[in-house]
Amino acid sequence: MAAAYRWNFAPVFENADVLWAGAIGTLRLFAICVVLGFGFGLVVGLGRHAKSRWIYLPATAFVEFFRNTPVLVQILWFYYALPILLPFEISPLTAAALGISLNSAAFSAEIFRGGIESIDRSQAEAARALGMTAAQAMRRVVLPQALRRMVPALTNRGIEIFKMTTLASAVAYVELLQQGKLLASLNFNPIETYTVIAIVFFLCLLPMVQATYALERRLGRADA
Amino acid sequence: MHVWNFAPVWANADLLALGLLNTLKVTGAALAFGIPLGLVLALMRLSPSRLLAWPAVAVIEVFRTTPPLVQLFWFFFALPILLKVEMTPYVAAVLTFSIQSAAFFAEVFRGGIVSVERGQWEAARALGMAPRQVMRRVVLPQAVKRMIPAFLERAIELMKTTTLVAIISYADLLFQTNEVAQKTFRPLEVFTVTALIYFFVIFAASTVVRGVERRLAVSGEGMAR
Amino acid sequence: MTTTPLLRVRALHKTFGDHAVLRGIDLDVMPRDRIAILGASGSGKSTLLRCLNFMELPSAGTVELGGQAIGRAAPGKADPDRRTYDQAELTRVRQRVGMVFQQFNLFPHMTALGNVMEGLRTVRGQRESEARARAQVELARVGLADKADAYPARLSGGQKQRVAIARALAMDPEVLLFDEPTSALDPELVGEVLRVIRALAEEGRTMLLVTHEIGFAYHVANRVVFLADGVIHEQGTPDEVLKHPTQPRTRAFVERHREFDF
User: Fold this and answer.
1) Which of A195, B38, B112, C121 is the one with CA 20 to 30 A from A145?
2) pLDDT band (50, 70, 90) for residue A223
């Protein structure tokens, strides 16, 4: 049956510039969300680790809310609902960036917190026994060890963020899938177009995925 | 200063309820197909025969390394032309998310089996058990208990991922939310209510999962984290 | 009249990658022998033990159980002494040779009684009631009759190891292999396990014991084997090897272990 369909990739490659514009959009959104997501995530993660209720509770509420609602709902809320409350428009990029970044911050906060707490108390104790302050113990002894352990989980999160950028097409942000939709409807060739899009994502993500496996193996061994 | 007015939302509660029902339908169907398919893929992956292992690896890697929305578009827009069949949003959704979740479940299955320590294999073999007996009596019982939390987490992830079906116009909760928002011109209230519905449903599910994890950890049979 | 050795090891070699751990071991184990295998870390003690029930496959050499060589000669061009091993045969060997592990390796999803019964039910195919009765006898023998329904998570290390011993005993092994049975235990719990092993020795069970407990080896073993660099450096009675060693390395080893005696 499939043999009856004649694949023709020419129109896709002829419009490579359209796809390229989408790729740039994807990368831009990805970079913004990784930086904001991990940055804010670290802050919230440390907040979850804090002893004071005034810091711990809001941080927990943030994490619980943004982990337990779907990203697409968050993006659409920022795009359709937030402008009602604000005196200005929210662009597709802003809505997508807000949704994906806050979502990623919530997930990465748990990774950071888990990493810090997984380092045995005895490490921090040994550091304090040497005369370090709590902040020094965190910076010199706990965080360096924690970061090594967190790298596989953080890389996984990065991969998820990359995949999530496609959701921005729901608010017509110019990223790769959005451009694919455009081309597919213009040239009536969804098969070739979406196949190419899928392959492009696969080729971009595969190195990251393989790197994560390799990291997990190496860190699994080095963790004595 | 915006004046919040939830009345139009309650007036259309039935539309939202229908959406929630459809969300659960798609999630349930994808789980029902995804879990057994995931087990099959996992066993194929663990098989010493390359004829079985390589296709399994291919499916798992492709479906884990491409965005779900791209998969959904391919199954909804491209596949029907290729196979010359009709495609509804529901069928495309169930097809996509069954295979996609199966790819992730396969890794959960495999991880569970592989995580049972060597010492257990050795002790069972030292008693004189044949490999199949070792699997059945010692390894799988321990593996399954460890996999339960990961399974439940994956199922919750699936519930969140199925919101994508709104984009291909399947009448799930998110799609209905959009419809109601356009109908009532109250996107703020409607989307907020929907976000809260998703939150409560998923939060409740997550709490159950955490309870299960705690109970498993106490009985000494959970996965060390 | 010479009795056949229960276990006979000839020219045993074991190499991991390019690291030769066992470089030619010859050993005869007679019925009622209690052999303590001593040596420094890395000398190959555990590897030797694990070759005896084929948890490790020998790279060269033979192991005979009850007069029969295990495995088949399959000489190749590169390796004329090659032997191949059939899983089914190894499974049968392990039904005759019992092993107790350093890390106990109890099945956490079964009770103590369940653990001891498991071999009888699954391997010997016994009925539940038969297996249960026998398992209760073995648990009583190691002093844990009252812990029959406890899960391993609720047992102390010493108790876990005793259950592991009962589990091995239930299979009526011809030879018992102990792989550093007390090395993973808190010092206070070591005694209860050693007492059980001594009782088994006094019953006349054939056993090989890899251990760091030199004093225990002296009192319980009838033969001591000292391994160094993958070969048997010295062997003899406990008095010969531990009180009057002839080789300097053996002497150094024993002295190191007595350094903090009081």
Assistant:
1) B112
2) very low
The answer to whether residue A112 is domain-embedded is yes
User: CA–CA separation, C232 vs C7, rounded Å?
Assistant: 16
CATH of the domain at A164: 1.10.3720.10
Cβ neighbours of C250 (radius 10 Å): 23
What is the rounded CA–CA span in Å between residue C247 and residue C97?
Answer: 32
Instruction: Report yes or no on C185 lying in a domain.
Output: no
Domain hosting C157: range is 107-172
Q: What residue type is assigned to position B16 of the chain?
A: L
CATH superfamily placement of domain B7-218: MetI-like (1.10.3720.10)
- Direct distance between the N- and C-terminal alpha carbons of chain B, in angstroms, rounded to an integer: 48
Average pLDDT over residues C25-34: 95
* Structure tokens, B15: 């539309």
**Of residues A86, A177, A65, the one with CA closest to residue B77:** A177
Q: Which domain holds residue A187?
A: 15-222
- Asked if B191 and A76 touch (Cβ cutoff 8 Å), the reply is yes
CA distance A187 to chain B (A): 13
What angle (nearest 5°) sits at the alpha carbon of residue C53, between those of residues C47 and C58? 55
Q: How many CB pairs under 8 A join B and C?
A: 68
- Asked if residue B26 has pLDDT above 50, the reply is yes
ipTM of model: 0.86
The answer to whether C253 touches C40, Cβ cutoff 8 Å, is: yes
pLDDT band at A221 (very low <50, low <70, confident <90, very high): low
Say which residues have a Cβ less than 8 Å from residue B117's Cβ, sequence separation at least 6. none
- Whether the pLDDT of residue A190 is over 50: the answer is yes
Interchain pair B127, C119: CB under 8 A: yes
| Averaged pLDDT for residues B165-191 | 92
Residue C113 domain-assigned (yes or no): yes
Q: Is the pLDDT of residue C43 over 70?
A: yes
A86: tokens are 């604000």
- Average pLDDT in the B162-182 region? 93
Q: Indicate contact of A with C: 3+ CB pairs under 8 A.
A: no
pLDDT > 70? residue B219: no
> What is the tally of structural domains in chain A?
1
A78 contacts: CB under 8 Å, gap ≥ 6: A90, A94, A95, A96, A98, A99
* C105 to B120: CB separation less than 8 angstroms, yes or no: yes
The rounded distance, in Å, linking the Cα atoms of C208 and C27 is 11
